[in-house]
Amino acid sequence: MRLKNLLVTALLAGLTRGHAAGQSIPSPFRFFETKQEAGAFVGWIAPGTGRFEYGPGAGPMVGVRYGIELSGPISLEGVAQWIPTTRDVIDPRRQEGSRRIGEADATLVGADVRLKLSLTGPRTWHHLNPFALAGAGALWDLAKPAAIEDDLGEQDRFDFGTAVVGVLGGGVRWFATDHWIVRGDALLHVWKLDTPDGFRLSSRGFTDVGTSEWVNASSIGFGVAYRW
Fold this sequence. Notes:
The chain has 228 residues and is mostly beta strands. Helix content is 9%, strand content 55%. It is built from 1 helix and 10 strands; from the N terminus they run αββββββββββ. A hairpin with a 2-residue loop joins strand 3 and strand 4 (74-90). The protein is elongated, with a radius of gyration of 28 Å.
C-alpha cells in the first residue's frame, strides 16, 4: 500500500511539473552580445534661420554612424553628416520687408560625438531597444559665395563659418537579426549664427542686435546598421 501511494505521488508530481512547464511564457527581453555597429542614415532637418532669416534652411540629411557599447546601458557613437540646402541672401541696406534679394546654396558638413543611454540596458524588449542621447560637435558650410552676393559689402555678407553644435534627443533600434538593425532618431540640434557687422549699425535703424544668436534645428532620421 505504501509503495502504491509513493508511485501515485511521483506520477502526480511529474504531471504537475510538465503542465507548469507547458504554461511558461518566454521573456520578452533578450540580451545582445555584439558590441560595435556601423551604418548609414537619411533624414530631414529643419533649422531656425535667425532673426534676419539668413541662416541655412530646411533640407535633406545624409550621414554615416559608428557606435560601440561601453558598459551596461552606455554606448558611444560618432556621426558624420552632409546637409545640402539653401539660405536666403539678405541685404541690410534695404528696408524691412524687402531685404531678401535672392538665394544661395548652403552645403553643410558636420561631425559630432554622442553618448547614448539604452533604456532597456544591454538587451532588447520584443527586439526593440529605445534610447536617449546627448552630444556635441561642429558644422561647416562648404558652399562658395553666390554671385548675387557680389554687390554686398564685406560687412553685409553672412558667413556661416564654423559652428559648435549641441545634440539632444532619442530614438529606437529594432534588432531585425543578431547582426542587422533598423534605427529611427528624433533630435534637436543647437548652434550659433554670427551676425554680420552691417546688421548691427544703428545708422541703419538696427537696435538691440547681438554679435550672434542661437537657433534650433529639429531632425528625424532613419537608417540601417550592421553589428558585430
